[in-house]
From TrEMBL:
EC number per UniProt: 2.7.13.3
Catalytic activity of the protein: ATP + protein L-histidine = ADP + protein N-phospho-L-histidine
Main location: membrane
Transferase recorded as keyword: yes
InterPro entries recorded: GAF, GAF-like_dom_sf, HATPase_C_sf, HATPase_dom, His_kinase_dom, HisK_dim/P_dom, HisK_dim/P_sf, Sensor_HK_Regulatory
Annotated keywords: Kinase, Phosphoprotein, Transferase, Two-component regulatory system
CDD domains registered for this protein in UniProt: HATPase, HisKA
Lineage: Bacteria, Bacillati, Actinomycetota, Actinomycetes, Propionibacteriales
Protein name per UniProt: histidine kinase
Localization in the cell: Cell membrane
SUPFAM superfamilies, sorted: ATPase domain of HSP90 chaperone/DNA topoisomerase II/histidine kinase, GAF domain-like, Homodimeric domain of signal transducing histidine kinase
Any matching Pfam family: HATPase_c
Keyword Hydrolase: no
Amino acid sequence: MEHTHPGPLPWSASDWSEAAMGESLRLAAESLCTFGGFGAVAISVVRDDQVVPIAVAGAESLLDADGNQRDASAILDSPFPVSLLEDTLLPVAEEWGQLRYIPHDRSSIPELGWRVATPYVGTQWHPYDLLLAPVRDATGRLRGLVSMDAPTDGLLPPPDRRASLERYAAQASRMLLTALEREELAERQRLAMAARRLLSRAADGDSPEGILAEVTDELIAAFDLAGLRASVFEGGDRRILAETSELLGRFDPELYRISRRTAESLWRHQLVALASHDQVMNFDGPADELALIRALLREAGFDSILFVPLGAGETCLGAIAFYRAQDGPRWTEAECQAAQEIGRDLGRLVSVQRALRLEREAVGELRALDDYKGRLIATVAHELKTPIAIIRANLDLTSELVADDAHAAPSLDAMGRGVDRIARIVDDLLLLAAASDPRLPARQPVDMAPYVVSGVQLAAESAARPEVLDVRTDLPDAPVVVPADPQGLERIVVNLVGNALKYSPAGGTVVVSLRDRGDHAELIVTDEGIGISAADQERIFTEFFRSADPVARRQPGTGLGLAIVDRIVAHHGGRIDVESEVGRGSTFRVFLPAF
């Protein structure tokens, strides 16, 4: 796809803004007068399609086209078309190195609106002769002009003087190019500040609508806009992020189709598009689409639209349109580049916000599902309590009735163990549901040590393994205070120590330590048991997980104990870690924020 630029390029410079550079150019013109031997020197810059004089020296006495006396400001007030220079004057000029001499009799336009009033009777210089030095940049683009008139000796410069004139003119040309570069740099910096302000607000994580609402006035001032509209594409529709003018309220399906296709094409090629009544850039659609856009601009009272795609990665997400009034300035290259950067930054923000919205929705759904699961588990567990109690009561009664039947006793014992196991599962399910409830009891400042001691005692009593009773506690003398639910703390110790006793061999040692680490408390439970494989360590805090290790599976359990501990620890704003190696025991560390 080709992107053409019919007519003149859309870039233009702003009015001269740096006073110091303007004064330097005036001094350069005066130097050329003094050392070059001319009575009038003008330095001009190309603005849009006009050659605009910006510095003048000498020319104390001027005549306008009607022969009226004028002062030097007549030159500054007399821009002329670039086409006059490029198409009419330079083609007929004599080349004197970098200088161009245009005799008065070679041009069909003998004057530019003014001339020096000094009479030249019987000399070689004619009042309408011109000596010019075109100023071009490294790309060959015409950027300005140095004009010399009224030689003080009234003569054409001889060849031996032309070399020095070239040097003086070249110095003035370099100064003009430097001034233009500084002006363009200042313009880019000004626009970059507007973009940075947008970015600084984007870094706060606000919505695109909120950010645009805050910076719209700054963007309008920075880009000299009459209005703007930013929108994102959502399926077959669009959502307005910001709109400052209701004049373009009409946004029918055809215009939406044009906007979306154009934005996607621009994003693929990393371009912006520009359209006005007499210019077009990078709009690659058919002529009737461009005509529709121009008609809408006329209807709204605008002169031009700068159309900037919004996107991230390879995806175009929307577009932002900048509008200028009919008397507004033409767009500069720096402005187009700055607007493109804003489109990229805003596109990234839209992409992040979409991802965050999807993530929030997913989290909400997961929370709802988890809440439903917790309520379901709690309901089922509560409902099972009654039938379990009935079964247990009838088993006890039956055991008394058949106490002398040796054949019935084993079966009744097996049923009793099964009921006990079901009861443990139900109790663990209720604990899990309670630990998952966001409405857990409020935390209060408590010393952990007493609950560590009571938890160890409860775990040892429940273990019912007299051969594994070497449980050592290592507690500090000073209190270790944390904001906690006391029952939750005790449950953490009971479950961790209970697991350590269950999976430790006869004669093994379990050590329970408590440490005050300043900003957090650390509970450590270490055993010399069978250990946990690396693969199992990834899943041990998952509900109902049981290891595939046959040694571990021989021990009764529900697979809920560590899941309950993990939920309680998370509720307290802490974390739990495990270090283990098969055959060499395990160490569980619980970290809880200090009070």
